Amino acid sequence: MKDIEQIYYNNFGVAFYWKKENKTILDKVQLVFRETGFYLTIAELNQFCDLIEDSLIENTCCESCQLKNSCHKFLLKTPLPQVDLAVSMKEIKSIKDLVEGTLFRLDLDEYVYGAGKN
């Protein structure tokens, strides 16, 4: 099995880089949640973050519904045009945390080990 370098995780999923021959492959991030895996570039992760936010805005009409956190009627678009996910509002929020947490960690690492390094 290939080694991984974990970037971020929550109770819903995990984001990590694959390692091959003791070298971390930094061009894409593996995002895994709910028996689903996406291997995305940073640009695609940012696009996914925007799509999640759009979905949350579009589904504000469900605020008063008692089933809003458990019904799977929400289609969440992904950076892959041929793939949409059927998710609950609770799952959308968990995916949002996973993607935003991953992007935050990547930005922080870039600052600490890149631009902010003396």
Describe this structure in words.
The chain has 118 residues and is of the alpha+beta class. The protein has one domain. It is built from 2 helices and 7 strands. The strands form 2 sheets. Strands 1, 2, 3, 4 and 5 form a 5-stranded antiparallel beta sheet that branches. A two-stranded antiparallel sheet has the order 6-7. Helix 1 packs antiparallel against helix 2. The longest helix has 27 residues. The radius of gyration is 16 Å and the shape is elongated.
Structural class: alpha+beta
What's the helix-strand series?
EEEEEHEEH
The tally of helices reads 2
Task: Tell me, briefly, the overall form.
Answer: elongated
Give the percentage of residues in beta strands.
25-35%
Radius of gyration: 16 Å
Helix content: 25-40%
How far apart are the first and last residues' alpha carbons, in Å?
Answer: 37 Å
Number of strands: 7
List the domain count as a whole number. Answer: 1
Biggest β-sheet strands, sense, barrel: 5 strands, antiparallel
| Low-confidence residue ranges | none
Overall mean pLDDT stands at: 89
